[in-house]
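Researcher: I'm preparing a figure for a lab meeting and need a structural model of a single chain. I don't have an experimental structure, so a prediction will have to do for now. The sequence is pasted below. Please return the structure as tokens so I can convert it later.
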Amino acid sequence: MASVKPYRNPSGETVWRVQFREDGRSRQETFRDPGGSKAAHEFAGLVARFGPTAARDVLERRKGHTTGAPTLREFTQRYLDEGSGLLTGITIRTRIDYRRLAKSFLPMLGDLPVDAVSKADVGRWVAWQEAQPARYGVGLVSAKTVKNHHALLSGVLSAAVAEGLRPDNPAHAAKLSKGMRREGVFLTGDEVDTILAFIPERYRPLVVFLTGTGCRWGEATALTWGDFTLTGIVPTVRIERAWKTDGHGGAILGPPKSSRSRRTVSLWPEIVAALPPRGKSNELVFQAPQGGMIWPGRFRTDVWRVALDGATDPEACAVIGREPITKRPRIHDLRHTHASWLVAGGTDLPSVQARLGHESITTTIGTYHHLTPDAHVKMAAVARDAMRGVLPSAQPALEA
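Model: Understood. Here is the structure written out token by token.
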């Protein structure tokens, strides 16, 4: 604890003293006007939250700076406030996601004055963040998650620089480890069939559609019957909308993830036959039992995880005459599965990009290029040709 008291020195000047205990002994710091009272109370708060050593470190860093800067928490709230004008050109859903991401660094750094956050502070937070468990599944948080959280922190601090609250951005060019990457789970047709056996009949058309088209959850559950063109040589569905969080616990229809996510996806007769009974043009194709949107969280808990429990249980699978699966895919892995089938079947990556609605071909290549059926054969052949003179005895085995 620290106490703040004003004192009048012999010259008549009012000074503010912060008294606290350190290593069992009484200590004090003195602050003079102008701004002495505010600076003293701010220092006392830092002592209470971080201890005397860290509080003095902040005091040293702030020499020559204007006192009374907002805390990182206060400035982050302002930065994310739509009315501040500091962050523009993003959707309501993205702004909500940013507020969630900010919760990763505010508990550790939020009470520091925004002009006192140092590279060491950022480094300590990065090390802590990289050691956190994954939100879903096992292992540590993914490298992509750490990168997203760090990018937001860096954006907040860059805005503080632009506002004249600090001279530099201590998060800029911070070193991030590669961390853990959550690899996609790729299913076989038989594995999908086993999972479907444990999906309630009402939701099987949705799971079939997700697997057969590679659509994102928010896109598929936003489809109406008017989005389908089922006449002509090849039936198609047009992706124009996706569900977005409205910021108040509800959801609204908005544009899909990116401009390339607006796309037409081709279908085939069997998947069309697996759709629910056709409704009116403006009716949702996939609906909750009470009507309206199927909430992903409730579906994940009440339907998907229950189905996986059954599909991985040898006894439950034996009852229906199926082999249990050994994987526990996410719902999003149905999208990965669809893409893996396309690539394994020889579909070129630009076509896969267009069908999945990836904004950049880099995403498609980085995620699925290793599945290209002849990639490994070609690379092995190149290495073989280069080493003909080095390993001549290996040539017959490779060519066999």
